[in-house]
Every structure is written in structure tokens, then in C-alpha cells.
């Protein structure tokens, strides 16, 4: 088991640039596995509508190469009016100690399309 610290940080809304795209916050994750990586993470950040959000996330990633993992994350997030469940595709790029995490959420009837980026550090 490894513990990771997450610096939540940036988002990009390609179809509507009026949203807050500096989503600073922190999170912690407990990670298990090497080729099939499972993780439970909890954290908080300032969301795209400038509200405080908290999240609980479970993710599964398959190692694609030494430095790339692909998978998905599923969980619950607060701060958007109602608590919202999600399942999102995810890509991790880095080594076992440092990584960049990229996620994508398509447009829905509630939210615009958004790309999200954070950085993880093994403690």
C-alpha cells in the first residue's frame, strides 16, 4: 500500500471559458497494486463555479507502459448544488513517486465539457 498526496489544480472548459479554471485544493489517496492499480482518494478543491467541493473517489488504472496508466475514476462530489455521482476516464503520466493525472468529463445537461488536471506525490 502507498499513500499519495494530491495537489488539485487546473481545469479547462473548451466550450465556455467563463468558468473558474484554477481549482486549487488537496487530497490523499491509498493505492494498491502495480499493474492493476486501485485507489481510494478523498479531497477538496475550489470548483469551477467558485464553490468549495469535497470528493470521495475510487479509481482503477491499468499500466500501459512504464510511465502511463489508463483507467477510470468513480465517486461522489459536492459543491455543485446537489451531490453528484460520476464515472470519468482517467490518464496518469509519471513514475511511482510523481505523476500528472488527467480526467475528462463530457458536457451534460448540468455541466459543460471539462478537462481536469492534478498532480500526485507518493509520501
Describe the protein's topology.
Elements: E1 2-12, E2 22-32, E3 36-46, E4 52-63, E5 68-77, E6 84-94, E7 98-105, E8 114-122
Antiparallel strand pairs: 1-2, 1-8, 2-3, 3-4, 4-5, 5-6, 6-7, 7-8
Quick description:
This protein is an all-beta fold and 123 residues long. The chain is built from no helices and 8 strands.
Please, could you describe this protein's structure?
- This protein is mainly β and 123 residues long.
- Helices cover 0% and strands 67% of the residues.
- The protein has strands spanning 2-12, 22-32, 36-46, 52-63, 68-77, 84-94, 98-105, 114-122.
- β5 (68-77) and β6 (84-94) form a beta hairpin.
- The model has no long low-confidence stretch (mean pLDDT 95).
Q: Determine the strand fraction and express it as a percent band.
A: over 45%
* Order of neighbouring strands in the sheet with most strands: 1-2-3-4-5-6-7-8
Radius of gyration: 14 Å
* CATH top level label: Mainly Beta
Which descriptors apply to this entry?
single chain; 123 residues; Porin; globular
Amino acid at each position: 500500500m502507498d499513500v499519495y498526496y494530491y495537489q488539485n489544480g487546473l481545469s479547462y472548459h473548451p466550450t465556455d471559458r467563463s468558468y473558474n479554471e484554477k481549482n486549487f485544493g488537496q487530497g490523499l489517496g491509498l493505492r494498491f497494486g502495480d499493474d492493476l492499480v486501485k485507489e481510494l482518494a478523498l479531497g477538496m478543491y475550489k470548483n469551477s463555479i467558485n464553490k468549495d467541493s469535497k470528493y470521495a473517489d475510487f479509481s482503477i488504472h491499468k499500466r500501459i507502459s512504464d510511465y502511463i496508466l489508463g483507467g477510470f475514476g468513480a465517486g461522489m462530489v459536492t459543491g455543485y448544488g446537489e451531490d453528484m455521482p460520476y464515472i470519468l476516464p482517467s490518464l496518469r503520466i509519471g513514475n511511482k513517486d510523481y505523476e500528472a493525472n488527467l480526467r475528462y468529463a463530457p458536457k451534460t445537461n448540468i455541466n459543460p465539457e471539462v478537462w481536469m488536471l492534478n498532480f500526485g506525490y507518493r509520501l
